[in-house]
Task: inverse folding
């Protein structure tokens, strides 16, 4: 009870090893990674470090790099023949722009994101960096800056190339960083867009697929799909369940299955975690979580320490309360004069051998000097002191009397 106490509390650990594979719904995507964004932790993964073709998930980097250079989203530009070269031959997806059309940078960004247009992507590369080679070089520089160690780009569109590869883990890292850009977040989470010239209207490709195949994607806030025969069906997305934010990347759902494979797989994962896990208050504000002994002569033998705020953690709905442990670090023996609300130390929560978090705790009561206890516990010393004092006084008086007698004789 001194160092570890049981408390009504448990938590789902944020490490993939803690996820029992049989509990997770089976998905056909070859590689998966799921972040719980509230705490920026991976809570599920499958082959997340395997190098695979990212297909049009590449355009997340395309947009991110483009936004570095664009100073005015509504600046108009005119599309040239150079921006469309090679697209038809490579069977690339296009947004539907045409040579000579006047559009804005905002239009090109949405054209890259929603219909996954290679025409929009190549236009951005040429307009902002002069040519595709320079643009792709910057994409690789950015990947290195972000720590995407298993990624290399050969083009800005995601078309197949043996030197164009990434991992689910790297693409998740990229999307997390890109979403910190307010403009990117706004683009990524838009439901529908009509170009500035009114000639094109698009919805996100994941939503178009979901509508076609009757898949509910209500929790998904935004996403980017990708597809080639080599890459299969891919989806990078974010979603929210009950104030818990998730980021999910799925790569390489088989081409022989449903064209909605990436969307279906993503929703299976989101629904599983969204319905089986969530934040729950496990320690109420001012609830005692540990007991500290007090020093001798304090007015109480022990004092509880408490958190000043309610503590909530990401938990499975069927958590086992008896598997939580807490470790207290702080004042082991409180002295009189300690004030209510002063910091006692911290408690560290752990579950199944994994550390969950550390929170400060405070003394729940004042600790005062107990005079009665002092007298009660030290009466023999006081009696002894009184006796000693009487003896000393008697001896002193006796000496004085002797001195007076000597003087009288003289």
Result:
């Amino acid at each position: 009870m001194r160092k570890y106490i049981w408390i009504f509390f448990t938590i789902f650990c944020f490490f993939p090893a803690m996820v029992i594979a049989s509990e997770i719904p089976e998905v056909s995507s070859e590689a998966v990674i799921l972040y719980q964004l509230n705490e920026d932790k991976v809570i599920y993964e499958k082959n997340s470090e395997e190098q695979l073709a990212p297909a049009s998930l590449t355009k997340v980097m395309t947009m991110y790099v483009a936004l570095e250079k664009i100073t005015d989203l509504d600046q108009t530009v005119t599309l040239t023949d150079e921006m469309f070269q090679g697209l038809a031959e490579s069977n690339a997806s296009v947004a539907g722009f045409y040579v000579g059309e006047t559009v804005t940078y905002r239009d090109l960004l949405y054209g890259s994101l929603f219909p996954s247009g290679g025409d929009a992507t190549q236009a951005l590369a040429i307009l902002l960096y002069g040519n595709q080679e320079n643009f792709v070089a910057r994409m690789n520089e950015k990947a290195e800056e972000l720590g995407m160690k298993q990624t290399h780009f050969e083009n800005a569109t995601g078309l197949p190339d043996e030197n164009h590869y990434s991992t689910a883990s790297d693409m998740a890292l990229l999307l997390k960083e890109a979403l910190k850009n307010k403009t990117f977040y706004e683009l990524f989470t838009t439901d529908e867009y009509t170009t500035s010239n009114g000639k094109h209207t698009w919805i996100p490709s994941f939503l178009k697929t979901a509508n076609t195949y009757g898949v509910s994607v209500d929790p998904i806030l935004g996403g980017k799909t990708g597809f080639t025969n080599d890459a299969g069906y891919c989806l990078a997305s974010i979603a929210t369940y009950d104030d818990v934010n998730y980021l999910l990347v799925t790569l390489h759902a088989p081409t022989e299955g449903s064209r909605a494979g990436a969307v279906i797989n993503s929703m299976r994962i989101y629904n599983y975690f969204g319905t089986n896990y969530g934040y729950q208050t496990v320690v109420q504000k001012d609830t005692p979580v540990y007991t500290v002994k007090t020093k001798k002569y304090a007015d109480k033998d022990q004092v509880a320490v408490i958190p000043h705020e309610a503590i909530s953690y990401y938990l499975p709905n069927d958590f086992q309360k008896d598997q939580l442990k807490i470790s207290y670090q702080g004042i082991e023996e409180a002295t009189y004069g300690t004030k209510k609300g002063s910091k006692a130390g911290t408690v560290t929560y752990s579950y199944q051998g994994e550390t969950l978090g550390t929170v400060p705790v405070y003394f729940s009561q004042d600790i005062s000097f107990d005079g009665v206890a002092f007298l009660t516990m030290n009466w023999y010393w006081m009696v002894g002191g009184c006796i000693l004092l009487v003896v000393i006084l008697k001896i002193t008086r006796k000496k004085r009397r002797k001195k007076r007698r000597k003087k009288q004789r003289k």
